[in-house]
Amino acid sequence: MMVLAVLSGMLTGFALGIFGSGGGIVVVPALIYLLHLPPKEAIAMGLGIIAITAVISVVTHWRAANVDWRAAAIFGPIGMVGTYAGARVGAVVPASFQLGLFAVVMYMAAYRMLHKSAIAAVDADREIHIFLLIAAGAGVGLLAGVVGVGGGFLIVPALVLLASVPMKRAVGTSLAVVSLNSVSGFVGYMGTVPIHYALMGSFATVTVISSLTGAHFARRLHADTLRRAFAWSLVIAATYILAKSVI
């Protein structure tokens, strides 16, 4: 299994580095369908892997001054509460429900990627909507805990539209929030499902290293073409999950 973990981590990291997608969208299916872990274990471990990769990524954005800590301070703690609650719910609901919801999240992520330019031009001087931002943080956190995703593809538009964070800084800020949410969700699953720490650690290590290689290749390829290709691959993967594990 350790060899499969290394290979899966390489594929996952390479994809993350090229496409810049939220980790859970790639990690959880890899753990389920390549390593054949039970869904609940895969979701819990996926959150742990996302937490590790997000923390490392956010350091890079922080050094480049691409993190809005004020927005993260509002969104993050609320998201952590929501993610912990979602993890406790995810530990008891049927796995088929989690996978069905995960497939819906993948469809949403694909739509978001195909329509990425729709929020890129939002005016950064808009009023900050504190209460809506708090509600969004709680909602995204709850979803993240149930299905095992960081929720970055939802956090970015929320930060742009509700907190007036410029698009470039919203990406870095979302990683800070994702790291907090993922840690909280992982803690929420601890004690309720088995956690294979050696497997999780090796997967995360290889994923981080491979993501750097993927990012190197991404700079040489056309961004829009890559984004659309990955979006349609999410549609195919979500349909496969629904057909194999839900329907």
Overview of this protein structure:
It is a single chain. The protein is an all-alpha fold and 247 residues long. It has one domain (2-246). Helices cover 81% and strands 0% of the residues. It starts with a helix and ends with a helix.
Poorly predicted parts: none
Alpha carbon gyration radius: 17 Å
Helix % is over 70%
Q: What is the terminal-to-terminal distance? A: 28 Å
Question: Biggest sheet: strands, sense, closure?
Answer: none
Looking at how many chains there are and whether they match, the oligomeric state comes to: single chain
Give the total of beta strands: 0
Number of folding domains? 1
Helices and strands: which structural class?
Answer: mainly alpha
Strand portion = under 5%
Annotation field: number of helices: 11
Shape: globular
The SSE order reads HHHHHHHHHHH
Average of per-residue pLDDT values? 81
